[in-house]
Amino acid sequence: MSGQLEPFYGKYTGTSESPEGRGEVADRDLTVSIQPLEKNGFSVNWTTVIHTADGQKKKSAPSIDFYPSSRPGLFVSAMKTDVFGHTVPYDPIAKDGNPYVWAGLDDTTLTVSALYILDGGGYEVQVYKRSLNESGLSLEFERIKDGEPMTRISAQLNPVPR
Questions:
Q1: What is the pLDDT, as a whole number, of residue 109?
Q2: Between the N and C ends of the chain, which has fewer C-beta atoms within 10 Å?
Q3: Which residues lie below 8 Å from residue 132, measured CB to CB, with a gap of 6+?
Q4: Rounded mean pLDDT, 16-30
């Protein structure tokens, strides 16, 4: 499976516009790095800087390691260390509200999904689909809250020369 991931390895950048509500649009600077890990896995590091119409900036920079699961093409996240020293995914029901994250590889698309359990029992799902193309990676992002689409972003991410 790691051989199928090799075409994704590298660093990519791009920009996107997305609706922010009330007729406003936010520009986003996007960077993603996908790299192999020493122990049969890979890491995805991405940075999103949102530039809002009122001049504000909001930055998010998650970094997640993934390892093969028992199911082909599916990868479990390793986001914290348990009491036995093993890296494991977050528990989305825990008090800290961190998401359960997993990845899936389907041909030329690497999908990273995050499930948040909200107070009161609602949920939010964030899905990042990164697909290989001749120019680099196309990104399709969707945020869904309690079944309702909230945000959709599309962008072309170009490789950064090494």
A1: 97
A2: C
A3: 7, 8, 108, 109
A4: 71
Q: Is the dihedral of CA 128, 28, 118, 42 positive or negative?
A: positive
Residue matched to tokens 């516009």:
17
- Residue linked to tokens 């993603």: 32
CA-CA-CA-CA dihedral for 30, 98, 34, 88, to nearest 10? 180
Give the pLDDT mean for 29-53. 92
- Tell me the per-residue pLDDT of 64-106, one tens digit each, with 9 for 90 and over: 999 999 999 999 998 887 888 877 788 888 888 899 999 999 9
Distances from the Cα of 123 to the Cαs of 74, 108, 109, 148, in angstroms? 22, 28, 25, 10
- How far apart CA 110 and CA 50 sit, in angstroms, is 23
CA 102 to the chain's CA centroid = 9
Please provide the DSSP assignment of the chain as one string. -HHHHGGG-EEEEEEEEEEEETTEEEEEEEEEEEEE-SSS-EEEEEEEEEE-TTS-EEEE--EEEEEE-SSTTEEEEE-EE-TTS-EE---TTSTT-PPEEEEEEETTEEEEEEEEEPGGG-EEEEEEEEEEETTEEEEEEEEEETTEEEEEEEEEEEEPP-
